[in-house]
Amino acid sequence: MAALVSRMSFSQIATMQTAEKAEFVSAQEYLDAEAISQVRHEYLGGLVYAMAGETVTHNLISQNLLFHIRRGTKGGPCRVFISDIRVNFHVNTDEYFYYPDIVVTCDKRDTHPRFVRHPKLIIEVLSESTERIDKREKFFAYTSIESLQEYVLVAQSPREAILFRRRHGWKAEKISGDKAALKLDSLKVRIPFSAIYEGV
To answer: pLDDT tens digit string along 99-149?
Structure first.
């Protein structure tokens, strides 16, 4: 199948997966096809899922977070990426590739040009199409990554965030209110909600 994937679209792969239920796409086949795809896809242990387009509000919140995290970590070892850089990890024997809205790595081992393997912080901006996955499936997947210190879910409306920290046993901390702020202990960065939701 490997030679075939480079000439196939992901829609053709998805059709084939449905028709041949037992056949999965390998991680390398996924990476080869994703490199030429115009639509982003996530990879879950051999299954490929197209990602939905996002709203202007989602994009603005993501940009605001990126700007303030980059400013807060400037001059240090950390690098901040938005949406097009994947996180690669394993859960048991299954390999995963997700596209977080924001991912921060401070690990010198992260040298791959297309994905990060040692994230310190991951942020997902919630939307109707992804909220359930971000709160359950991705929570359990991301928190299995040894290097991850914080996982944050930021709502579009109402203005609130849910913060999970490894050192607190991944217990949820809800933050809300116009005068609230997101405190990222892993990076020593504090972002007021007024800055997160600026222009929204």
So the answer is: 999 999 999 999 999 999 999 999 999 998 888 889 999 999 999 999 999
SS3 of 24, please? coil
Tokens in use for 177?
């209110």
The domain locations on the chain are 2-50, 56-90+98-196
Rg (CA), the chain: 17
Residues 6+ apart with CB under 8 A from 69: 80, 102, 104, 121, 184, 187, 189, 191
Sequence-distant (6+) residues with CB within 8 A of 113 are: none
Reported as a single tens digit per residue, the pLDDT across 140-186 is 999 999 999 999 999 999 999 999 999 999 999 999 988 999 999 99
Q: What's the pTM value of the predicted model, to 2 decimals?
A: 0.84
**Which amino acid appears at position 4 of this protein?**
L
Helix ranges restricted to H, 2-80: 2-5, 10-19, 27-34, 56-73
Q: Select from 39, 36, 14 the least CA-distant residue to 25.
A: 14
CATH number, span 56-90+98-196: 3.90.1570.10
What order do you get walking across the sheet with 79-82 strand by strand?
79-82, 102-105, 119-125, 150-154, 160-165, 172-176
Tokens of 56: 């202007």
